[in-house]
Each structure stands twice: as C-alpha cells, then as structure tokens.
Design goal:
The complex is a heterodimer of chains A (about 230) and B (about 325). Chain A is about 35% helix and about 25% strand. With about 230 residues, chain A is α/β, with parallel strands linked by helices. Chain A has a single domain, classed as Rossmann fold (3-Layer(aba) Sandwich), CATH 3.40.50.300. In chain A, helix 7 (about 165-180) links the parallel strand 7 and strand 8. Chain B is globular and about 60 Å long. The longest helix of chain B has about 45 residues, at about 1-45. Chain B is built from 10 helices and 2 strands; from the N terminus they run H-H-H-H-E-E-H-H-H-H-H-H. Chain B has a two-stranded antiparallel sheet with strand order 1-2. Chain B has a domain at about 25-245. With about 325 residues, chain B is mostly helical. The chains are: A alpha/beta (about 230), B mainly alpha (about 325). The interface of A and B includes residues 49, 75, 95 and 103 of A.
Chain lengths: ~230, ~325
C-alpha cells in the first residue's frame, strides 16, 4: 500500500533522514519506534507532504506521491494525526470534525454521528471550544477529525503522549478497532511496549536511519529492543 | 479652564446627534478598510501596508466606470440605486484584483523564501510607493470628483439631527457588506478554511486546506471591501492618487483598537474611531481631527496593545 525507498529529508543544512526505506501493507498496523530525535516525526511529516524528501520516492497504492502537496493527501486517502494533537483551539468540537471532512462533498452529518458513537465524550463536548478540552479528549478529537476524511491509511504521531494510562488503554483499543474496520495504521510511538502489543510489525529507527525491522511479537522479545525501548537491563 | 469645558460641553450637547451620525458614517468606511488589515494579519501575521493603495485603486475604478456611464441628466431614483451599486462593484473588483496582485508580487516570493518579518514590511512600503506613484503618473495628480449619483438631502431627523442620504448610503452599503462577510467567515467552508489557517496553518493543510489559495482569497475579500469603501468615501471626498494614505492609516488604527486579527473587533474599532474623532470636533478645531485619531492609536498601543476585543485569531464570533 505504502512504499518508501531511500528517502532523504533535510532541514536546511542538516540531514534528518539519511535514506529510509520501509513499507506498509493494507490492513496492517505498523509501528515506528525510536528515541527522541531519531526522525520518527520527520518520517510522518514526510509522508503527508509537510516536508518533501530531497531524494528517494514514496508511492501510495502504486502512485508516486513524493512531490504531492500536504493539502492533497486527505483526498488520496492518507490522514495524519499530528504530534501534540493540534486541535483548532478556537473552533468547537463539531467544527473541528467538519474541518476533517474539508475536502469532501455532500453530507457529513452521518459521519459526525458515527464519531459521536465511537467517542461519546465528544458528543457531550460538541459545542465547546477545542482549546478547552482535556488532553485525552483532544486526542480522541484529533483521531475522530482524521477519520472524517475516510482515510485508507491513518498516520498517528505519539497518540499516548502526556496521557494517563487508562486513557492510553482506551486510545489503543480504538486504534485496534479502526484497523478492524478496514483502515491501515502507521503508528509512531515512544511507548514501545504498548505499540508492539497492538502492532503486526515494527521498524526501529536511530539517528535518521531504520536500523532493523521484524514482526511485533519478535521485536517484543528482541534483546536490543528490550534494552533500549522497554527499559530492561540486558 | 472651567469655562473652556462648560462651553465645549454645551457645543457637544447641541451638536451631539449630528456629530454622532457623521461619525458613524465615516466609521463604516474605516471598518470596511480595517477588515482588510485584520484578515491578512489573521492568516499571515503581517500588516499589509499597501492596503492604502488597494483602497485608492477602488476609488479610481469607480470614478472611471461612473464617468463612463453617468450622463448629463440628473439620475432618477432607480438610476441612483443602480449607480451606487455599480460604484460599489467597480471599487470591489479593482480593490480585490490589486490586493491579489500585491500578494503575488510583494509577498508570495518572500513567503517562498521564508523571509524575516522586516522584509515583508519593506516590500509592502515599496509596493505602496510604486502603486500610488504609478496612479499619479497615469491618472494625473489632481482631485477628481465623482459624477452626481444622487442628490444629497436630509432624509429624516433623529433627536434634531438631520440624517443625510449620503450617510444612509454609506451605512446601508457598509453594514450589508460587513454582515455578509461576518456570516461567510463564521458559516461557510471558505470561512472555515480561513479560520483554520489563522489558527494553525500547518494543521489546516493536513485537513486539505490549500494555504496558498486561502491566502489569495483573504487578500481578495479584504481588497474588495477596501475598494468598495473607497467608492463610498469618494462620493463625498473625491478621488486622488494619495487618497488612500489617511483613511487607511485610520483603518489600521481601528483594526488595532478592536484587536488586530479580530473581525468583529475591526468593525467595532472602525465605528468607535469614527465617532470619537467626530465628537472631538466639539472640543478642538476640526483641523485636529487626524491628530485625535492617531492619538487614539498611540494610546491603544500604550495601554491595551491587544485592542478592545483582543486578538481572537480565527474566531468565528
């Protein structure tokens, strides 16, 4: 579904990604693990056109999207839940959901109702401004907003960041349900244990390179992963 | 000293309603121009100092169009309505086009290169000088009066102040356009796009909002309102290549007064500034009217730089 080969991303003179390659197949949950500054967020930003690669190619469903602009991705079927949730603070919950369907024509009220079923708290808060929601509510809104464009591939950047363990559980359960409903998920997480329990496969990133990859089950017991990302002594 | 104030308050009491009516009329013009500053600030965080020349272009466009269509005979009532409509349209089209042109030539190349804020300011001043000197060279450096579109006469009186037709035309056209703009920004897809870019441009693009196009539309809307305002202004004050300078600076004051980036703030600031400077005539000579307006700007910047309603960027209401 998604193939990235030898992608290089630069911020000015600094090379942030030194030729990364990976792929995501339809129906999978794939996670990208790595320490702070490894290049995980940059990778996601590259996938949604916020930071075009200077070399390498990205194809989505066989189509070259390397130079596609950020605002064209929702129409292609890729939706990005950004790091830090980035809810529109001065818009109501409902308006934030409407923004998620910005490129769609026709009625979206059924989809909004569906989001309220999945996330009942958003229905209670529908008239409140996005900026007044709690972190967990904002994360749910960010995911619901991204689903409003009917993506086939959902990019999630650190959905557990700063949230209480119970809310993290809920968010991860919902991510599983999203995949079961037919949306492929590419998940960037610092919470490696949780991400690997949910994912099918994982890639591990260090200093702008993908250093190894395996199925999630194997990565969970891999001593290199356990040492660095699951906080265990070797 | 006491005598000074009692006598001036006596003038104010006598002249309050006429001054208020006149002040509100200029206030509507300031509001319409202030919208242009505030919209562009909302999405780009920059003050479009070429807005004065966008205003001026609207004045000339309405002048040329109306000169071409108005004959020697006095227009009938129906024709008057039509001519005012034409003037608004000509001003709006020219203002909108020039605003889009300014964005393309003076700002977009800087955005592509991620230039510092100072570069935008210099580019804006350059565009402003270029445009008004071009207008002066091409159209002459004289005052032009618009053809007579209607006979200005008192229509009714309120608390003893006669309200002239000109004031009603300005207030009616101005209020209609401002309400329309407010609804568009609050309710339409285009308005949601503008607010989204103002609040968080990058995330707006992830939602599918084309930032470049939204910026162009913002300039177009602000320019159209400013150009239409120049026509309303020109009915009474005439048209000249430097006509944009003072009204635009006052509209900028109005935008800051209401809270830059805040649409309703711009409207409130415009009306308030129009009334304040008009009422000031009771206390100081009319020659000081501009001094009063710019004293307001200095006072706002000193004491409440975020304006009356604050910088509620991208807010619907």
């Amino acid at each position: 579904m998604l193939e990235v080969s030898n992608a290089v991303v630069r911020y000015g003179a600094i090379e942030a990604l030194h030729g990364v390659s990976f792929e995501v197949s339809a129906g999978e949950i794939v996670t990208l693990l790595g320490a702070n500054g490894a290049g995980k967020t940059t990778t996601l930003r590259m996938l949604s056109g916020l930071h075009a690669p200077v070399a390498g190619t990205i194809t989505f469903d066989g189509r070259d999207v390397t130079r596609t602009k950020a605002h064209q991705f929702t129409s292609l079927g890729i939706s990005h839940v950004p790091e830090g949730r980035r809810i529109f603070p001065q818009m109501s919950v409902e308006e934030n959901l409407e923004m998620g369907a910005f490129r769609r024509r026709g009625s979206i009220s059924e989809d909004i109702d569906r989001m309220y079923e999945t996330f009942p708290i958003l229905k209670e808060r529908r008239k409140q401004l996005g900026g007044n929601l709690s972190g967990g509510e904002q994360q749910m809104l960010a995911i619901a907003r991204a689903l409003m464009s009917h993506p086939r591939l959902l990019l999630l950047d650190e959905p557990s960041m700063g949230l209480a363990p119970m809310i993290v559980e809920a968010i991860f359960r919902i991510i599983g349900e999203i995949r079961d409903a037919g949306t492929t998920v590419f998940l960037v997480e610092q919470n490696a244990a949780q991400a690997l329990r949910l994912a099918d496969r994982g890639y591990v990133m260090e200093n702008g390179r993908i250093v190894f990859t395996d199925t999630a089950d194997k990565l969970l017991v891999d001593p290199r992963v356990r040492a660095v990302y699951l906080g265990e002594a070797v | 000293m006491i005598h000074y104030f009692t006598s001036h308050f006596a003038t104010l009491r006598l002249e309050f309603w006429p001054l208020l009516v006149g002040g509100l009329a200029s206030g509507f013009i300031y509001s319409m121009v202030a919208i242009g500053y505030t919209l562009v600030y909302g999405v780009l965080r920059l003050i479009n100092f070429a807005h004065s020349e966008i205003f001026m272009s609207g004045g000339f466009a309405s002048l040329f169009l109306l000169r071409a269509v108005v004959g020697n005979s006095q227009p009938s009532g129906f024709e008057s309505v039509l001519l005012v409509g034409l003037g608004v349209l000509a001003g709006a089209v020219a203002g909108g086009l020039v605003a889009v042109l300014v964005e393309r030539v003076a700002y977009r190349p800087l955005r592509r290169r991620r230039a510092p804020a100072l570069a935008y300011l210099i580019s804006a001043i350059g565009a402003s000088y270029f445009l008004f000197n071009l207008a002066g060279k091409e159209f002459g450096r004289n005052y032009y009066t618009l053809p007579i579109l209607f006979i200005n006469r008192p229509v009714f009186s309120i608390f003893g102040a006669s309200v002239q037709l000109y004031y009603l035309v300005v207030a009616g056209a101005g209020a209609a356009m401002l309400v329309l703009l407010d609804r568009v920004v609050a309710k339409s897809r285009l308005g949601r796009g503008i607010r989204a870019v103002a609040q968080d441009a990058e995330t707006a693009s992830l939602m599918g909002v084309n930032i470049d196009r939204t910026i162009v539309l913002t300039f177009l809307i602000g320019g159209a309102l400013g150009g239409a305002a120049a026509f309303l202004y020109g009915i009474q004050s005439g048209v000249i290549y430097t006509m944009g300078f003072t009204p635009a600076l006052k509209a900028f004051t109005a935008a800051v007064l209401g809270g830059i980036g805040n649409i309703r703030g711009a409207v409130l600031g415009g009306l308030l500034l129009g009334v304040v400077e008009s009422l000031s005539v009771a206390f100081v000579s009319g020659a000081y009217i501009d001094v009063v307006a710019f004293s307001v700007l200095v006072a706002v910047l000193l004491f409440r730089p975020t304006g009356i309603l604050g910088e509620r960027l991208g807010r619907a209401a």
